Amino acid sequence: MTISRRDFLRNFVLVPAGFALLPQSLLRAVMAPSGAGTRNLVLIDLRGGNDGLNMVVPYGLAGGTYSSEFRPTLGVPLSGVLPLGGGIGLNPGMTALKSHFDAGRLAIAQGVSYANPSFSHEVAQRVWEKGDPGDAAADGWLGRFLAGLGAPASPNAVAVSDTLTLALTGSGSFVPNFDKLSDFAFPSDSHHPGDKGNRRAAYSAIASGLAGADSQLATMAASSAGILDLIDVFATVPPFPHVGTYPTNTSLSTSLKLSARLLNADIGMRYFHLPWGGFDTHADQEVDGYHTTRMQKLSDAMDAFWQDLSSVGLAGDTLVVVVSEFGRTVYENGSGGTDHGSVNPVLVFGNGAAGGFASAHPSMDPVDLGENGELPMTTDLRDVLGTLVQEWLGGDAGAVFPGHVLSTLPLVA
Amino acid sequence: MTVDWNAANAAHLLRRAGFGGTRKEIDKALKAGLDKTLASLLKPEKSKFKPPTSVDNLQRLQSWWVARMLKSKHPLTEKLTLFWHNHFATSIAKVGDLQLMALHMGTLQSYAFGTFEDMLLAVSRDPAMLIWLDNRVNYANSINENYARELQELFTTGVLDRNGQPNYTEQEVIEVARAFTGWSLSHDEFTFKANKHDSGSKTFKGVTGALDGTDVIAILAADAATARRIPQKLWSFFAYPIALDDPLCDELEQLYTSSGGQIAAVLDGIFRHDAFYSVTAQRALVKSPVEFFVGAVHLLQGKQHSGYPYEIGDVLEELGQSLFAPPSVFGWKEGLKWVSTSGLLARNTRGEWIADARDKDHPVQYKPAKLLGKKKDWATLDAAGLVQRVLDELDTTASPATLAALAAYVLADDSGVPQPLVIDDDFVDRKLRGLVSLVLGTPDFQLA
Fold this sequence. Notes:
The complex is a heterodimer. Chain A has helices at residues 5-12, 24-31, 65-70, 95-102, 121-130, 141-149, 196-209, 215-234, 251-265, 290-311, 381-392, 397-400, and strands at residues 40-46, 56-57, 82-85, 88-90, 106-113, 157-159, 271-276, 318-324, 344-349, 356-357, 379-380. Helix content of chain A is 33%, strand content 12%. Chain B is built from 20 helices and six strands. Chain B has helices at residues 7-16, 23-41, 58-71, 75-87, 92-95, 98-110, 116-124, 127-132, 146-155, 170-179, 213-222, 224-238, 248-258, 263-271, 289-299, 311-319, 341-355, 383-393, 400-411, 425-441, and strands spanning 183-186, 189-192, 202-204, 207-209, 303-304, 364-365.
């Protein structure tokens, strides 16, 4: 049995003299205060509207309407469903997450949505990222949580994406977005490498000089300064000794590996937003097993990430959460696909997850469908996100979701 | 309203209606006057649109379009095509065929200045679009609502009107989908499959009858919500972002309606409007990655290496705007989103890559010494004058602190110690290139 780093540290704290032997990054971990700002969150965002009914499959509800009524050709074959109990099962590709469910490490909130759901990608995505069913908030729910933590010494959140995501806006501090650490280098002219220091000094002076100028310039200047800091910080980040087996050719794998590496580096980056596209399956959803393969990749990538974190003692401090802007129509369409729907399950995964179903699946009885054919919602998205803020991240759900009275869900152990 | 036609306003127009003007181009526009300059800009590209037939990968196709932008004598044609590309955001990721993507871009370019109704009809029959939003498999009795929804949500009326009321119902999404049944593809060309068309009665925006896609397009192009939203999007792209309830939209909507939805008429109104030249508008937009790259090479009086170097495509991807591959049907996120961390980082890195381009086979070709004018005049420049000259050539502003930092950079030797300014070939290769690299990375250069 190998002793993980965190376990090693836990056994070590009684021997302060040992601090001298520890690298600086490990020292920070030992000294970190408990409570708000000490746990990690990785938010995977399935962009395009994931078909939640084919991920968490209600095959046994309402007398089997799932396959007999709603999904005659597109339904997951019942012989392959991985039963979780109560007539609900996981997509056949998700064997890894099935094991984690059985081990109590996967919580599933079902029927998650909001009143008067939008069938527009753009609006629905804004609602989820803002955590505001009214789409009125100016910023994102994670950003508001970060604002409550105050300004960090070094960026504590990142959008693993080529744009900053709405969910992370509003923190009041510099939140970077990137998908490769190798991009972080100050460029140098190969013919005159000795001039690099001058160029960097000028770049830095320009950024400082613009602080407080016209707002767009000041915003860019703050990013420029942040980039220079990150170039220095990332120069110290060691490679991650991966033990998990990630699916190949999948940007989600790359994003999760990057997240594992940054978490392990212990540089204060704890909150990761990982958009993963390709879920808008209006046609040919299962041609060549398309959607099932994506479900398998999701499950396998999450498992590999957990293996990785377990190997360095971080699995207990990190939750992975999977959301999507909406589910898809209950009835499959005529082109082997599904159109825009509403309610969806949310997955909460990690050693710190409560395990089991955190809320009930909506009725699958055709008479219970809403006016636009949508499944009735059972769970308010703010209760899912609010529980994570309050019980996992140690934040104040009331401040992050103003006007909403939190009804806590059993998501966190 | 009369526009004060001075150098600043001429430069502003060239930044917005193109990729920025060199000093020579600004002078020319100034002398020609607003009317002539606008007439030239609004004249569509004459050369017949010829998509490349030998392009075998996405990067080269992207490089081909960038080459068009760099060579064009009618930059507004290219700029407007970029606007439509983001409006009808269609991606190779699903279309999967480079020729169809090139043809799609040709559709956008051919109809760019005409009536919006013609544009909608052409786009609805465009093979790439039929694949992108699945209408090729939208059949009677088994409808696929993807195109019907986005046609309303993204391409015409938008979800909500100026008062926040829905512009369409879920039932109308279904009715429009029915109207477009049978608009399909055969051997990569548009075909109407009559036996797949639902010829039954539909009701859409108060009109009931055996509507088909053409009828729906006529209704949508003339709809008040469209007449307000399309000009609002054009204004936001070319001038500065405004909301649907902005009073300016009243004027713009009027231009759209009275011209029968002529895009050229709306643009002409925008480019003659006082507000277009106001303080609110000047340097208020963040350049898109394509504007950054094309603008930089153009202002450096450079060009792209022949043969459509694939690396141009890599550059666009790093900068965050892979042409022909928008991230989703709602296109790229504009404004400051362009220069979030990875975008700004790439502008600095690729700015250096442009500035230090020396090799004969480098995708970017330019001569830095051109920026300084005649060699005999070099001796008259001091550090501040030299920096200002380069900023002017690159059509860029700078704060006093930025000017000071750049002037200090110009004089610093490798140990960071200031030395007397000697402008010679070594200086040009070392410091002038360094200055260009820095300017391309400044926050100021990112604004148009």
